[in-house]
UniProtKB/TrEMBL annotation:
Protein name: Carbon-monoxide dehydrogenase large subunit
Organism: Nocardioides szechwanensis
Pfam entry (one): MoCoBD_2
PANTHER family, A to Z: ALDEHYDE OXIDASE 1-RELATED, XANTHINE DEHYDROGENASE
Single annotated GO MF: iron ion binding
Length: 796
């Protein structure tokens, strides 16, 4: 038997194509030389009533083919965009229109859409559109939203889109009885993901067959397909959505449809020409989506050992001007906040608030970094109050290995009870302490102090709900050449899906890894799917691919058994060859089995001769059995009963400069448990990328609005991101594998783990270095410098 590939660090098969410049992104889609290009007029105001739009000067511009404003939209296109994830607590959900109707509610909102011969002409034409506005007072930031002396939407009282509460008991009574109590006021500021590739959409209408083809840089090709069909009044069968290579998603591309994903197909169908839209960088800043912004208030009661007796959390979530993605982000914050701990009583209340800023949808971590920040700052505060080691306080609150499955008594984002499936948090803690050198750190601190250097160490723990439903599917097809074609509707944005999915197929089917080709995100190949988000690709599509490969294998063994005159139970498939166990001379390759699986009337090549009606099977039997279909293939779907929960712990040692307050990373360590590993190298790559993104979120990246709702740093000159010089040179990583019982592979997700604890772990380390409470993230050197001054003034 060949060595199993699951658990092996197989080199990524995708990389050579990308490294050679052969990637094909939405902007590379060159359907025909007569392609038209689109540009969008966007609001320069955060809050204003549209009095008049004059497009007269545009229509005479040479090269302009069409201009749309809201008044040109009809039917479903004139209705608000979908509220994708309704929730009973989202009592005042609001979504925007494809083009603004009557009012704009953030800088960057789409107002008019121009299609021209090229982008230059389209942009010039956009500049000729005249819009008259009546300015309205904007609401910017959580404090202004809570004050509610002005409203984003006139019909939303207090700017409150939703209020939600969950509890596991009488928190007031438990708090009153606790020997110790603390309160914390915390803030996490707005940030956003910045994929290398922005949004892009290309569409072509074929009038001869009444069919629309759309290429979109999306995380959900099937979702885009469905909404395009509904909004344009087409049958699903009339719409194909193909996701080409995607240069990063990180959550922003799971929201759908963006206005352009509807307007481009509308224009293509109306004009009978291929139409393309490619977003520029400023558009991405001001018109896609942000995340993170929350204000948190925490009250905690605990005993002499630091055990959590009562935890009461209130937070206010800034969801921007609209709520297309519902309450997913604050729900995740409220439930994942608990991490690996088990407070005796927990209550959480949040309000999700409207502001005149860009809407909020999930960004890598999706509410978990905020929850982790709240919980881990609380743990550090308890340790400081009791004079205990921070690891001791965490250890006393851990869910123990023998307590799984563990029910937290809450409802998670998938509408299911929050039940952790597996884990071993004490073992993770011992591993992270060893990796970072926790027990040796006091000696290191003294050594650094002797040199006039100031260092601190931090720790943060987290749990991540992954593999959220409802389902994913897969199709595995063995061709007569012996090549294996695999399709799943879930999209890919660089995670290595073509490699890990091929590993799973090779293991289960018994073919060669090199013979497997994986296609993702193409509704022509797999029309039923959900999308890539919430660290779900390996769990969902991986499980579906495993099951589909199993079906194909069962069929292959059945067909080969007849050809070899053996029992299927006596057969094996190794490197694409079916043979009798213990008798390798009696064999047949998978390509030949594929030929035999499809009885033919006509021979069109040498291989097909073996599958014609006079050469296949017993003349007394039908060519295709009643319970089979022609072709050597298998299709299956995986739908979990609930999410599976990965976990991990990060630790960091930082140095803070006594003069400049610069923060330098000296050592970073990660322990991660995502169940059974498919490809350790790819998991570690995901962790490295997540840590880099987490460094940015903790120390650099924020969206800065002024009081009028103008985004002040909407460029890479002003929005700071870490360079390679700011990311740790080496990250020490160790894995723990506690298999999940919820799927056939025992796996959990890994994609978002690297970013979740970053704000918390850096806050812990900086506070340890400075002996100054760190209550807001991200933190810059200038902010740390001013914190020092304030602390010095307040300290007697």
């Amino acid at each position: 038997m060949t060595t199993k590939l699951m658990g092996t660090g197989v080199q990524r098969v995708e990389d050579q194509r990308f490294l050679r410049g052969l990637g094909r992104y939405a902007d590379d889609v060159a359907v025909d030389p007569s392609t038209l290009h689109a540009a969008v007029l966007r609001s320069p105001h955060a809050h204003a009533r549209i009095v008049d739009i004059d497009v007269a000067d545009v229509l005479d511009v040479e090269g302009v083919h069409a201009v749309w404003t809201y008044d040109d939209l009809t039917g479903p296109m004139a209705e608000p965009l979908p509220l994708l994830i309704p929730h009973p607590m989202l009592t005042h959900g609001r979504t925007q229109y494809a083009l603004a109707k009557d009012e704009v509610n953030y800088v960057g909102e789409a107002i008019a859409f121009v299609v021209a011969d090229d982008r230059y002409v389209a942009e010039d034409a956009v500049g000729k559109i005249k819009v008259s506005y009546e300015l309205l007072p904007p609401v910017v930031g959580i404090d202004a939203a809570r004050a509610a002396d002005r409203l984003v939407h006139d019909d939303v009282p207090g700017n409150v889109g939703a209020r939600m509460e969950q509890n596991t008991g009488d928190v007031q009574a438990a708090m009153a009885a606790a020997p110790h109590r603390l309160t914390l006021d915390l803030t996490v500021e707005r940030s956003a993901c910045m994929p290398m590739e922005g949004r892009g959409t290309v569409a072509r209408w074929d009038p001869d067959i009444d069919r629309l083809q759309v290429w979109s840089s999306t995380q959900t090709s099937t979702g885009v397909r469905a909404v395009v069909a509904v909004k344009l009044g087409l049958d699903l069968r009339q719409v194909d959505v193909i996701t080409p290579d995607v240069g990063g998603g990180f959550g922003v591309k799971i929201n759908h449809p963006w206005p352009e994903e509807l307007l481009v197909p509308l224009a293509a169908r109306t004009l009978g020409r291929t139409v393309k839209f490619t977003e520029d960088r400023r558009e991405h800043f001001i018109s896609t989506a942000h995340e993170r912004g929350q204000v948190q208030y925490i009250e905690v009661g605990f005993d002499d050992d630091g055990r959590l007796l009562a935890l009461d959390v209130k937070f206010w979530h800034d969801h921007g001007a609209y709520t297309p993605y519902g309450l997913i982000v604050p729900i995740i914050t409220s439930t994942q906040l608990l991490g690996p701990y088990k407070p005796e009583v927990y209550r959480v209340v949040f309000e999700s608030l409207y502001t005149n800023t860009v809407m909020v949808t999930p960004y890598r971590g999706a509410g978990r970094p905020q929850g982790c920040f709240a919980m881990e700052r609380t743990m550090d505060a308890i340790a400081a109050e009791l004079g205990k080691d921070r690891t001791e306080v965490r250890a006393v609150n851990f869910i123990q290995p023998d307590e799984f499955p563990f029910e937290q008594g809450l409802v998670f984002q998938d509408g299911r009870e929050l039940t952790y499936d597996s884990g071993d948090y004490p073992a993770s803690l011992e591993k992270i302490k060893a990796l970072i050198g926790w027990d040796e750190f006091p000696a290191f601190r003294a050594e650094m102090a002797a040199e006039g250097r100031q260092v601190g160490i931090g720790l943060a723990c987290y749990v991540e709900g992954t593999g959220v439903g409802p389902y994913e599917g897969a199709h595995v097809h063995v061709e007569t050449s012996g090549k294996v074609k695999v399709a799943t509707g879930l999209t890919t944005q660089g995670q290595g899906h073509a490699t890990v999915f091929a590993q799973l197929v090779a293991d289960e089917l018994g073919c060669r890894f090199e013979d497997v080709e994986v296609v993702t995100g193409d509704t022509r190949r797999m029309p039923y799917a959900v999308g890539t988000f919430a660290s779900r690709a390996a769990v969902m599509s991986g499980s579906a691919i495993h099951l589909a490969a199993k079906r194909a294998k069962e069929k292959a063994l059945k067909i080969a058994a007849e050809a070899l005159e053996a029992s299927p139970d006596d057969l094996q498939i190794v490197d694409g060859v079916v043979s009798v166990k213990g008798s390798p001379g009696s064999s047949i390759d998978l390509g030949t089995v594929a030929v035999l699986s499809n009885p033919l009337r006509y021979a069109f090549d040498e291989a097909s001769k073996a599958a014609t009606q006079f050469t296949v099977g017993d003349p007394g039997k039908p060519p295709v059995a009643e319970d089979e279909e022609p072709g050597l293939e298998g299709t299956d779907f995986y739908s979990p009963e609930r999410s599976t929960f990965a976990s991990g712990m990060h630790a960091v040692i930082v140095e803070t400069d006594p003069l400049t307050a610069e923060i330098r990373i000296l050592k970073y360590a990660v322990v991660h448990d995502c169940g059974k590993l498919i490809n350790p190298m790819i998991v570690e790559g995901q962790i490295h990328g997540g840590v880099a993104q987490g460094v940015g979120g903790a120390l650099y990246e924020r969206m800065v609005y002024d009081e009028s709702g103008q985004l002040l740093n909407a460029s890479f000159m002003d929005f700071l991101m870490p360079y390679v010089t700011e990311v740790p040179d080496g990250i020490d990583i160790d894995h723990l594998e506690t298999p999940s019982p919820l799927n056939p592979l025992g796996i959990k997700g890994a994609g978002e783990a690297g970013v979740i604890p970053s704000a918390a772990v850096f806050a812990s380390a900086i506070e340890d270095a400075e002996s100054i409470p760190i209550t807001a993230m991200p933190i810059s050197p200038s902010e740390l410098f001013h914190l020092r001054l304030t602390h010095a003034e307040e300290t007697p």
